[in-house]
Design brief:
Length: 554
């Protein structure tokens, strides 16, 4: 039976691909791409074979591609580096295609795209789940800095190996070999062997290829935020021929990316994790030519009258004719003075596979009564001894979907603490216990070592600095309901009111959780992002008409 990760291309697909590349012959064993190489080429084997080797493990052969098979993975759609070494065997004849030409072929040929992307996704899953390797990260399991890097690499599907200095001799030996100490941690060792002490997330992104550089041009659309609404807008806009840049401050997925399992999203009867849904959309957007860069945190927006200029905290500047805010909302901190001490060391704002292992046989707390909290509780219950769901109110079902409520009630190791709140946290380097206080003022100390909090929603709009109208809570106002005095008076708004997802500034749109009045559900966010693209088209048409009129002499 054929392995879907390594299919053979039919001759019709090979004939199509020949239009995008060139044929090369190799008289001796030749490395055609190497570990860490950026923008490495895609190869189809016409004769002979390519051996894929793992330099991290004594040149172990991972797989051998034979006639009509192909190399590559989803990293080729961005600027991510090669994760292995590829050697064309003597006597081989290969069709060589650059990443840019490959993306062009994928965008234009549906059947070819389906086959390649399906294989790429399955290869990515295999690499992440079955092989030890990639970037080495040395640090303490109790370090907030190390946790932030691990969380970033996990959510961005970056292949890495975490070496915990608190548990493994290998980590300690590495520090000795490099004449380093615990003060130099966390330490990142890239595929090329470069050492980076205490790397920033920007450095991690740069060396893994997640952070991209853009052409110095004015794009049709800039999407700020790669949650469900931003990714939907990216897919639809790019597929309809617009030049699109999408940026995000952390990882694809937004709030949905923090959900361990979404079961009420149309088309996924067995459910899908928010992280997997976001990754598929991330690849889908790139398939159509969207440029996605992470982490790009919006810092300042300027409007020149003809286009927008975004300045990011990493010094990058992006110009676009239209802009879409899809920055979502973040969960609020618990009102506890010591909360920041434990963030990343026992207090978390998402529940992922990385957290699950730390919860094995432990007491776990989940604060919140929405769907994200319910999904996290059920996910963690498979690992923890007990999960305690903490709610300030007295009704678990007031904000949570009924199917989650019923499962929580049925789970033997999930306990719901109604009319309660966390008031104190204890522990030297990691959370060791906490205090729950009920509505009668009674306090109970519990040995909960991992606390997951999903409360409130604070819109991520600090970067707007009054450029567009917001409500008293900071959510962006859109549509005809915007107060007339808040509108940017120009020729466009003198002729019409803002479109339903347009802000007080024409060409500036807001979708998803950041928008006032939005429904906080994945399906709604995807719908808004998709629908907004038609409104972008209308605005760009108006912009072209205005530019044409201005260029015609009186």
């Amino acid at each position: 039976m054929n392995d879907p990760r390594f299919p053979e291309l039919p001759q019709s697909h090979i004939n199509v691909l020949k239009e995008y590349g060139k044929i090369e012959s190799y008289s001796e064993d030749t490395v055609v791409f190497d570990l860490g190489e950026l923008r490495y080429d895609f190869f189809v084997v016409l004769a002979g074979e390519i051996a894929i080797l793992n330099p991290n493990n004594n040149e172990t052969v991972i797989v051998t591609h034979s006639k009509n098979q192909f190399s590559g993975d989803s990293g080729m759609l961005s600027d991510r580096g090669a994760q292995f070494r590829a050697v064309a065997k003597a006597g081989s004849e290969l069709l060589k295609i650059t990443p840019a030409k490959l993306k062009e072929a994928i965008a234009k040929h549906s059947n070819l795209s389906d086959l390649l992307l399906n294989a790429f996704l399955q290869r990515q899953d295999t690499i992440l789940n079955e092989y030890v390797g990639g970037i080495k990260l040395v640090g303490s399991g109790n370090s907030k800095e190390a946790y932030a890097i691990r969380d970033f690499m996990d959510k961005n599907y970056i292949w890495y190996n975490f070496l915990n200095v608190d548990q493994t001799n290998e980590a300690k030996d590495l520090l000795k070999n490099f004449n380093l100490s615990d003060k130099d941690l966390p330490l990142m060792i890239c595929n090329g062997g470069q050492l980076h002490m205490k790397p920033t997330l920007d450095e991690v992104a740069r060396f893994s290829g997640v952070l991209m550089d853009f052409e110095d041009k004015i794009f049709d659309l800039l999407v700020i935020g790669a949650g469900p609404s931003g990714l939907a807008a990216s897919v639809y806009a790019a597929s309809e021929g617009l030049s699109v840049v999408t940026i995000d401050s952390n990882a694809p997925g937004g709030q949905a990316g923090k959900s361990s399992k979404i079961e009420n999203y149309l088309g996924f009867p067995t459910g899908i994790s928010g992280r997997d849904l976001a990754n598929r959309a991330y690849i889908q957007a790139q398939k159509f030519g969207c440029n996605i860069s992470i982490p790009h945190r919006a810092e300042k927006i300027e409007h020149t009258g003809n286009h927008f200029i975004l300045s990011a905290t990493n010094g990058k500047v992006v110009k676009a004719k239209s802009l879409m805010a899809a920055t979502g909302a973040n969960y609020r901190q618990l009102p506890i003075d010591t909360i920041e001490k434990y963030e990343g060391s026992g207090v978390y704002y998402s529940a992922t596979g990385m957290n699950a292992s730390a919860c094995k046989s432990e007491l776990v707390g989940v604060v919140g009564g929405g769907n994200s909290a319910g999904q996290a509780a059920l996910f963690l219950a498979d690992y923890a001894q007990e999960v305690h769901v903490v709610l300030r109110g007295n009704d678990l079902g007031s904000k949570m979907s009924d199917y989650l409520v019923q499962r929580i009630i049925a789970a033997p190791n999930i306990h719901v603490q109604l009319n309660s709140q966390v008031t104190d946290l204890y522990g030297d380097h990691h959370l060791e216990s906490l205090v729950l206080e009920n509505s009668d003022g009674e306090k109970t100390k519990m040995n909960i070592t991992n606390l997951f909090t999903f409360i409130g929603a604070k819109p991520c709009t600090e970067w707007l600095e009054g450029v567009v109208a917001t409500d008293e809570k900071g959510f962006v106002c859109t549509g005809p309901g915007i107060d007339k005095e808040d509108l940017y008076m120009c020729d466009i708004y003198s002729k019409r009111k803002p479109q339903s997802l347009e802000t007080s500034l024409p060409g500036f749109f807001a979708v998803g959780d950041v928008r006032k009045g939005s429904v906080k559900r994945v399906a709604s966010a995807v719908g808004e992002g998709s629908m907004a693209v038609s409104q972008v088209h209308q605005f760009l048409g108006e912009l072209r008409a205005r530019e044409t009129k201005a260029s015609v002499p009186d």
